[in-house]
């Protein structure tokens, strides 16, 4: 990370001049085809971004967490995209207008390092997703996805690494270009091998090194 604590707090303080909003799990923040009502900074909770394919299926793009800004591309460029943002856990966020956000960025006293950190992280995640899709098997793509998520949402657990992310199997499937049925079967097989344990609200990766060996 390039930004220090003071610079990150400066960004948060800017958003705290706006409106604080609370969302229940499952509540939509920005719907498909809807112009964003402002730029958001997550104070607590998780927000998933996804689009709808031409087949009417959800395609998971990214999960935003605390201290991250969304919709980032629109916030910086003003370019609207048909991306849906939905809280996947109880979420509190601050909202400011895009105009105020751009004014903040253009202030010569503003440190842009927190925004640069977020942009780099988004680039890294999308690059890893492209690499992920180069794997030939669903198992390889799924393991790669879980390892990537463990870097953002993982924490030590007595059984391994707990990935605290309440994603549905359909979310995982869409992210790795697989069917939900195949994804479910592969998760079950890896559970039988003792490499992971899947729960509705999180997943435990029991043997990170063995999982990496599949790649």
Q: Which key terms come to mind for this protein?
A:
single chain, 215 residues, Jelly Rolls, Arc Repressor Mutant, subunit A, 2 domains, 8 helices
The assigned CATH architecture of the largest domain is Sandwich
Structural class: alpha+beta
Major sheet description: 4 strands, antiparallel
Beta-strand portion reads: 15-25%
**Quick one: how many beta strands?**
12
Q: What this model shows, in words?
A:
With 215 residues, the protein is α+β, with helices and mostly antiparallel strands. It has two domains: 5-111, Sandwich (Jelly Rolls), CATH 2.60.120; 133-213, Winged helix-like DNA-binding domain superfamily/Winged helix DNA-binding domain (Arc Repressor Mutant, subunit A, Orthogonal Bundle), CATH 1.10.10. 41% of the residues lie in helices and 25% in strands. The chain contains eight helices and twelve strands. It is globular, with a radius of gyration of 18 Å. The mean pLDDT is 94.
Quick rundown:
By secondary structure, the chain is of the alpha+beta class. It contains eight helices and twelve strands.
Topology:
Blueprint: H1 5-15, E1 19-23, E2 28-30, E3 39-44, E4 47-52, E5 58-64, E6 69-70, H2 72-77, E7 84-87, E8 91-96, H3 98-106, H4 113-132, H5 138-153, E9 154-157, E10 160-163, H6 169-175, H7 180-192, E11 196-198, E12 203-205, H8 208-213
């Amino acid at each position: 990370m390039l930004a220090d604590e003071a610079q990150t707090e400066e960004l948060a303080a800017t958003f705290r001049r706006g409106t604080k909003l609370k969302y229940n799990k499952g509540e939509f923040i920005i719907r498909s085809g809807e112009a964003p009502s402002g730029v958001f900074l997550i104070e607590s909770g998780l927000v998933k971004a996804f689009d709808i394919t031409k087949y009417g299926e959800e395609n998971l793009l990214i999960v935003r967490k605390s201290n991250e800004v969304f919709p980032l591309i629109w916030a910086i460029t003003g370019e609207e995209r048909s991306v849906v943002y939905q809280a996947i856990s109880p979420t509190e966020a601050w909202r400011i207008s895009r105009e105020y956000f751009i004014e903040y960025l253009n202030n010569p006293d503003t440190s842009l390092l927190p925004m640069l950190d977020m942009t780099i992280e988004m680039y890294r995640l999308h690059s890893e997703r492209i690499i992920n899709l180069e794997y030939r098997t669903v198992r390889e793509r799924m393991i790669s996805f879980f390892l990537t998520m463990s870097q953002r949402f993982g924490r030590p657990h007595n059984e391994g690494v707990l990935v605290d992310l309440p994603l549905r199997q359909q979310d995982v499937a869409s992210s790795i270009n697989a069917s939900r049925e195949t994804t479910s079967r592969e998760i079950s097989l890896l559970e039988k091998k003792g490499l992971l344990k899947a729960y509705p609200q999180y997943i435990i990766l029991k043997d990170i090194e063995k999982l990496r060996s599949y790649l």
